Amino acid sequence: MSGAPKTANSGIQRLSNGSSVIPSSTRADGSVRREIKVKPGYKPPEDVELYRNRTAAAWKNRGKGGVPGAESVQKEDEEASLALNKNAKRREARKKANAAKDTADETAEIVKPAKEAEPKAEEVDPEAEKAKEAKKLAKKLRQARDLKDKKEKGDNLLPEQFAKVIKMNELIRQLDSLGFDSEGEKKADSEQAKEEQSAAGKVEG
């Protein structure tokens, strides 16, 4: 007597020790599905035998000749065979669909980090950044000058407003280090404008 496990229509194998398992299988991408133990007493739809009521079949075919019930049983056998084939095809299609899905998911997981790892190359214009920073500093400097004027007129300043006035020289130094004057204009441009203004004054004189 052979000790090889019996395989049911559903693919479940009954081992010699009485336990049942769904054997391990290989996915389309080459990875292996592990063996799954089946609970004792569980019987999938594919392994359930079709109920045959011979008495009803014989009554249905009465008077047609031949052995009563024989034709019905043969038809039921053919129908059962067709049903099993359909179930087997559906099961195979499900397996293929699941395998394709697993492969797609794994591929997506591999591709996603690669895309995330790509740095976003954004070109930064250093001159534009300097101008932007100078604009902010010039605005703060104007606010500090306004507050200083208020203080000189006798207005009381809040502590944070007074702190802004104290930082005026620091703001001017920062603008100077960026190459801008205290008005937030580029030094070269502002000097040129002064020269042009001076020349225009001389011509008028």
From TrEMBL:
It comes from the Eukaryota. Residues 7-28 have a biased composition (Polar residues). Residues 87-98 have a biased composition (Basic residues). Pfam families: Mago-bind. SMART domains: Mago-bind. One of its GO terms (biological process) is exon-exon junction complex disassembly. One of its GO terms (cellular component) is exon-exon junction complex. Transmembrane segments: none annotated. GO terms for molecular function: RNA binding. Residues 18-44 form the WIBG Mago-binding domain. Residues 30-52, 112-136, 143-155, 183-205 have a biased composition (Basic and acidic residues). Residues 1-157, 182-205 are annotated as: Disordered. InterPro entries: PYM1 (IPR039333), WIBG_mago-bd (IPR015362), WIBG_N_sf (IPR036348). This is WIBG Mago-binding domain-containing protein. It comes from Cladosporium halotolerans.
